Structure formats: structure tokens, C-alpha cells
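DUF1636 domain-containing protein
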Amino acid sequence: MKTQHALFVCTTCSSVWKDGKRVGESGGDKLFKQLQELHQDWELHQEFPIQPVECMSACNRACAICFVANGKYTYLFGDVSPDLSTSEIANVLECASKYYNHSEGLLPWAERPEPLKKGVLARIPSPKADAGELN
Ligand code: FES
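Structure:
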């Protein structure tokens, strides 16, 4: 079975709210558009699609992005600036390539780019196929 990957970007992060409604472009929208622009020419754009989501419960650590794949660790990153430079955006995709190429999706701190070094909010393991045998 082929491993399904996804790069989630919260588009609600850093929103401006007025009278209970979001107004204008959020920081998350901006980050999503920047990532999407480079993503379309990225070698893994089909294997590792980018997907907007409306919240990953990391709201007080905006902006939030997540690498997820079946059978791999899930990484949730917060404190990602919505104003990354083009090279920083490219570095995020480069990091996603490392995630893609590692069988368990492990991303050691030293191998992560600056925007993804400090803000790791979660690193969640994949369930083991034989976990039931431990109980
Ligand atoms: S608004 Fe982005 S994680 Fe909740």
C-alpha cells in the first residue's frame, strides 16, 4: 500500500475578527498561499499534497502546519511566521521531503530548518500494527 502524505496548513490562524466574523486575509491564508505557490513546482507535489484546514487546536501558537502520513510520526508545528521568505518556504518543503523519505518520518532537530526548529507542538507516533499484542 502506498503511503499517503499530507501537508496541512491552518488558514484560520492569525485571523482578524470583527463582530464574530473573520475579516480580510488571515496570516494562515497568507502562509498557505506562499507554500502553495512553491508546492505546485515541488517534485513531490502529487505524493505530498498541501491541504488547507480550519483549525488544529494550536490557535495560541499561530501559524500552524502539520506533516502527516499513515505509518509515520505526525508533526504539528506552531509559531510559523506568515511572512516567511521564499527561501524559508523552500526550506519547509525541503524538510517535508526529508519527512517523505524517512520510513518513520523522523525529523531530528538539527535537520529541521529554522522556521520548524522551535515550534514543535506535537510529535505523535503512528499506531503499531501489533500493539494489540502488548495488552
Ligand atoms: S486557528 Fe489555527 S490552529 Fe486554531
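Residues 10, 12-13, 28, 55-59, 62, 64 surround FE2/S2 (inorganic) cluster (CB under 6 Å).
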